[in-house]
Design a protein that fits this description.
With about 170 residues, this protein is mainly α. It has helices spanning about 20-50, 55-65, 75-80, 85-95, 120-140, 145-160; strands spanning about 70, 100-105, 110-115. The protein has a three-stranded antiparallel β-sheet with strand order 1-3-2.
């Protein structure tokens, strides 16, 4: 529901709804549509071509981009927007496939490192062209360079880093 009244309407009365203005509603519905629709459009080609999910691809990709192809699990959870338990399950499956090896972080024994094996690197390299093609078709080809910069700025503003990972 929207209202033409100013944002913040109802602030003095916590029981009163804070309706969105038409511009706010347009921004919100656009964002939520992207959040809900884009991942499926990116995941489908990956599953078909490489047999992995978007989350699995992002996990492998982030590790492959890290120095020495090793990354702390907490950092990886942040980068993939997943919980540590979800990530642990995915990494356990990767270990079973020989794609990733976990070990204690020598700099901080409380942390665990995920390291990409050569086999895991081969998987991400083979899947990358499919992923990049889908990203271009679904997102980037529809945006000007200015739009891409604006999207990056907005995403940076909305991305919240957990306090324990600062």
């Amino acid at each position: 529901m929207t209202t033409t009244e100013s944002p913040g309407h109802g602030v003095d009365d916590p029981g009163e709804a804070l309706w969105l203005t038409p511009a706010e509603k347009e921004a919100w519905t656009g964002l939520i549509s992207m959040i809900l629709l884009v991942p499926g459009r990116l995941e489908s080609p990956l599953q078909h071509a490489a047999g992995i999910t978007l989350y699995e691809y992002l996990t492998l990709s982030h590790i492959s981009d890290a120095p020495g192809r090793r990354l702390r699990m907490t950092e990886l959870a942040y980068l993939t927007n997943g919980s540590l338990s979800r990530l642990s399950n995915v990494v356990r499956r990767f270990e079973q496939r020989g794609w990733v090896v976990r070990s204690p972080d020598p700099d901080d024994g409380r942390c665990t490192l995920a390291a990409l094996t050569d086999a895991g690197y081969d998987v991400v390299v083979a899947a990358a062209p499919t992923h990049v093609r889908a990203v271009r078709q679904v997102v980037l080809d529809h945006l000007s360079v200015t739009d891409q910069r604006a999207l990056a700025r907005i995403a940076a503003k909305l991305r919240v880093r957990p306090v324990d990972q600062d």
